[in-house]
Specification:
Bound molecules: flavin-adenine dinucleotide, iron/sulfur cluster
Largest sheet: 9 strands, mixed
Distance between the termini: 37 Å
Helix content: 25-40%
Structural class: alpha+beta
Number of strands: 26
Oligomer: single chain
Length: 563
């Protein structure tokens, strides 16, 4: 049976580690460089702003630009996709008495919740299991929250550089000294076009990688400094839509079961979320573990199928889809965390290192908390004027003392148990939850998603035909993401293009943005894969399943506003 990992991409992380090359006077010098304008990176920038305001002497020493944030999206929020029901603890700690929760761009607190186990036609209501209880949490659009946090970071003095992708990790004498941004204006084959602009070396005393899921430089840094955790990281793929609806939804809904199959051999783990966004919008998404085996599985099409369920059709009746998005979620949990969260000159936060509580479907509060703790560790080192290799180790101590560590430890094997099938997995997960993680299952082995041997079924035969009202094809969905990637830029997706048909079929069905198409068959049973890279919405699934996503030209990709 074919495994995608047998066909590795033409990618070497050492190609993305470099010494600074710009002449010293042309380098952009900043105090702290943050890569990624998501909740982790922006929380880090906001906290640094607060600390530097209290200590102008340190700010003075850091020079003209004390804090800079590189964001590859058109603007902060453009590449943010989430649910999002947010545990407010970290936001409250970040803002203290500076801002109340209701002063943030929120759709308000959760007012009720339901959990259903679905079959094709029926929905069995069950009491929400502990991880799905959301009393006290608040509903947001992460894309909107990202824009708001970016404004707060700028008010605090941070320089936000949108449309700027960090391409290479700058390392000098074993120490991270910043990042090199990507070139702009290159043609398909890499040649310089009329509007060519070379990337720049942005050098910093401390670099914080807050790139989120499948972080490009985070992966490079984990390799370069041998930081990988005990277990490999694994991911889920989530596809979601935002709908304008006629009737308000009065609660958050989670579903399990259909359209996923419960049989162990399929390894289909996941569920859906349906959250209200004020009185006239709802968001609906489906999350599926990328350790699934069926090459015909398409999360996008399963979401379309889910919407045809009578229970869900009623929620969307008379409504209109206004946005669509897709993104992966790291789900390896505690045992997949890196061995250390720092290296000389470097700190690692948020989804990039897998800080997500998968049974709760929550990572935003960990991203914000880790960003805040990274800011404090960076500040302590800068205040003392330290740059030695161990100066940033207090960040690891702070994370180990935080609720992030405690809670991830409690649910440490939660994701792996579902590899034993839905029912056994569900029973073990309940035992762990009820005992708050005291049921000891030992460290459960995890295999990389790309190592799963493939099987091929006719699963795709039951996907509903797109009607443009309730159900949609992939290309119109890419359009609904606002994707504006230039067609003639170099291909940013690294994959082996000649592969067995099953592997090509896996990638073709998996990609929610219709990037891959099976082309000519060779006599030896392999096929050539055609790649339409400009459709890519940078969800990251291809990295989990055997290829490698690298950041395209800054400003490319989706322009999410509500996801
Ligand atoms: C569909 C879905 C539903 C979810 N639901 C919930 C929920 O309800 N509640 C919850 O708490 N969590 C939820 N999560 C998880 C949550 O969204 C993440 O844990 C959280 O967004 C992580 O924040 P982050 O800052 O680490 O990364 P991200 O939010 O991914 O932000 C990273 C940012 O860095 C930028 N970036 C990345 N690489 C580079 C680079 N090289 N150069 C420049 N910029 C770069 C990206 O463009 C992005 O803006 C959900 C996730 C998904 C996908
Ligand atoms: S090509 Fe882009 S959109 Fe498609 S799976 Fe890969 S990262 Fe996701």
């Amino acid at each position: 049976m074919a495994r995608p990992s047998n066909f590795p991409p033409p990618f070497s992380s050492s190609d993305y580690v470099a010494e600074p090359t710009d002449p010293a006077e042309e380098r952009i010098e900043v105090g702290v460089l943050i890569v990624g304008g998501g909740p982790a990176g922006l929380a880090c920038a906001i906290r640094l702003g607060q600390l530097l305001e209290e200590h102008p002497d340190v700010a003075e020493r850091l020079g003209e630009v004390a804090v800079a944030v590189l964001e590859k999206g058109k603007q902060p929020g453009s590449h943010l996709v989430s649910g999002a029901v947010v545990d407010p603890r970290a936001l409250r700690r970040l803002f203290g008495n500076r801002l109340r929760m209701d002063e943030l761009p929120t759709f308000g607190p959760v007012t009720g919740e339901s959990v259903y186990v679905l079959t094709r036609r029926a929905a069995l209501s069950i009491p929400p299991p502990p991880p799905m209880r959301n009393h006290g949490n608040w509903i947001f659009s992460l894309s909107q929250l990202g824009r708001f946090l970016a404004e707060r970071a700028e008010e605090g003095g941070a320089m936000i550089l949108p449309e700027t992708a960090a391409q290479k990790l700058l390392v000098s004498h074993g120490r991270v000294v910043g990042a090199r941004t990507g070139d702009k204006g290159r043609g398909r084959e890499g040649g310089e076009l009329g509007n060519f602009e070379a990337g720049s070396d942005v050098v910093a005393k401390v670099t914080v990688l807050a790139e989120g899921t499948q972080g490009h430089l985070t992966g490079v840094a984990l390799d370069r400094f041998s930081l990988h955790g005990e277990n490999p990281q694994v991911w889920e793929l989530a596809v979601k839509e935002v709908w304008k609806v006629e009737k308000p939804l009065d609660r958050v809904i989670h579903t399990m079961g259909w359209p996923l199959r419960t049989g162990k051999r399929y390894r289909e783990f996941g569920g859906s979320f349906i959250y209200p966004m004020g009185k006239d919008m709802v968001t609906i998404g489906l999350v599926v573990g990328l350790d699934y085996r069926d090459a015909s599985l398409s999360v996008h099409d399963l979401l379309q199928e889910l919407k045809t369920h009578p229970k869900i059709r009623r929620i969307l009746a008379g409504g209109e889809r206004v946005e669509w998005g897709a993104k992966t979620i790291p789900s390896g949990g505690f045992h997949s965390l890196p061995q250390r969260l720092h290296a000389p000159g470097l700190l690692l936060c948020g989804d990039g290192v897998g800080m997500v509580n998968v049974p709760r479907l929550k990572g935003i509060h960990y991203a914000i908390e880790s960003g805040r703790l990274a800011a404090e560790a960076a500040f302590r080192a800068l205040q003392r004027g330290e740059t030695p290799a161990t100066a940033l180790s207090s960040y690891d101590d702070a994370v180990r003392d935080s609720f992030i560590w405690r809670e991830l430890h409690e649910v440490r094997n939660m994701r792996q148990v579902f590899g034993r099938g839905f029912f056994v997995g569900g029973a073990l997960a309940s035992a762990m939850t009820v005992s708050k993680g005291r049921v000891e299952l030992g460290k459960m082995r995890a295999e990389p998603d790309a190592d799963q041997p493939l099987l091929v079924t006719d699963r795709d035969a039951s996907y509903p035909a797109p009607d443009g009202k309730l159900t949609f094809d992939k290309l119109s969905s890419v359009f609904a993401s606002g994707n504006k990637t230039r067609d003639d830029q170099p291909n940013h997706i690294k994959i082996e293009r000649r592969v067995p048909r099953e592997v090509a079929r896996l990638w073709e069905h998996m990609c929610p943005a219709q990037v891959y198409e099976i082309g000519a068959e060779d006599g030896d049973g392999t096929v050539l894969l055609e790649v339409a890279a400009s459709n890519c919405v940078q969800c990251g699934a291809i990295t989990a399943k055997g290829g490698r996503l690298t950041p395209p030209e800054g400003g490319s990709g989706p322009e999410y506003t509500l996801t």
